[in-house]
Amino acid sequence: GGFLFTLKIIQERLRFEADILWAVKTTHIHLEFFKLNNCATAELKIRTELVI
């Protein structure tokens, strides 16, 4: 679906490492991706989550 496609694009853009891929798969970040549905905002959200 569109969500998985968007997630794939973001993964390619950020060149995720294995541990980051695991973090992206957590429920919280999945929900944020689905709710935001915006590459730029979702990217920022992921980086924020990883820093915290």
Automatic annotation (TrEMBL):
Q: Domain of life here? A: Eukaryota
Q: Output this protein's name.
A: Uncharacterized protein
UniProt source species: Stegodyphus mimosarum
